[in-house]
Write a structure and sequence with these properties.
Strand order of the largest sheet: 2-1-8-7-9
Number of helices: 9
Strand content: 15-25%
Low-confidence stretches: none
Distance between the termini: 36 Å
Number of strands: 11
Bound molecules: adenine
Helix content: 25-40%
Mean pLDDT: 94
Shape: elongated
Structural class: alpha/beta
Length: 253
């Protein structure tokens, strides 16, 4: 997976992606991160990439031309026999479709992705129309720029790229992959602050363990995110179980 990020703050992208699991994935060659500074494509000697909005109003707007030149530079490496490869260009914006685990899975199937990070009051609409294929939001709140949303997306996508997690199973079994939240986890010591690890986890009985994990996932989802159950595949008995929890406890959050 090759990530390209068009941004005014390439160091923000490089530094965040260079650590932890994504950092290891870059070193191992499972993913690559190419953060490109839009300012390097400014067409004036002051390196300005923004200007006042036509029609007036607060703030500045990023100009079309530097963004377009930056995009063309990235695409140069992909044009084989004059025919450019089709690569998704994701513009991070609160107006986009809200990012989800399912979208992360779909993007993880791509070989290359380009992210466009806006700043100030946004980017000239004409270049967005020209190059953007997908508009994505990471939630219903407004951030100062697209870098954090791009990092959130790259993190979620990277861990689904084969080889990135040591244990491929963990990418599949945890929260959201079956529309259920993950069960609680414990590690040593067996007793901490007077609290004991649930005895079933020490039993070594695989059948009991699997039942306990499933029950805990159902319990958590029913309490914390009952909205997720709509897409979950549950047996009749499990439906009855979650209904009972919802009617007894209501929603915690
Ligand atoms: N840019 C500013 N806010 C954003 C959000 N919530 N999601 C994606 N991009 C953004």
């Amino acid at each position: 997976m090759n990530f390209h990020v068009m941004t005014l703050f390439p160091e923000m992208i490089e530094q965040a992606m260079a650590v932890s699991i994504t950092g290891r994935a870059v070193k191992a060659g499972h993913i690559s991160v190419n953060a490109v500074n839009i300012r390097d494509y400014a067409a004036n000697k002051h390196n300005r990439v923004d200007d006042y909005p036509y029609g007036g109003g607060a703030g500045m707007v990023m100009q079309a031309e530097p963004v377009y030149r930056c995009y063309q530079d990235i695409m140069e490496q992909y044009s084989e026999n004059g025919l450019p490869k089709k690569i998704k260009v994701i513009y991070l914006s609160p107006q986009g479709k809200v990012f989800s685990q399912r979208m992360a899975q779909e993007y993880a199937d791509e070989d290359d992705l380009i992210f466009l990070c806006g700043h100030y009051e946004g980017i000239d609409e004409r270049v967005l129309e020209e190059i953007v294929t997908d508009y994505v939001s990471i939630g219903d709140y407004v951030l100062t720029g697209g870098e954090l949303p791009a990092l959130v997306m790259m993190d979620a996508i990277s861990r689904l790229v084969p080889g990135v997690l040591n244990n491929n199973l963990s990418a599949q079994t945890e929260s959201f992959s079956e529309s259920l939240l993950e069960y609680p986890q414990y590690t040593r010591p067996e007793e901490w602050n007077g609290k004991k690890v649930p005895p079933v986890l020490l039993s070594g009985n695989h059948k009991l363990l699997a039942e306990w994990y499933r029950e805990q996932s159902l319990r958590r989802t029913a309490c914390c995110r009952p909205d997720l159950l709509e897409n979950a595949e549950l047996s009749q008995a499990e439906w009855a179980f979650v209904q009972e929890i919802i009617s007894k406890e209501g929603s915690d959050r």
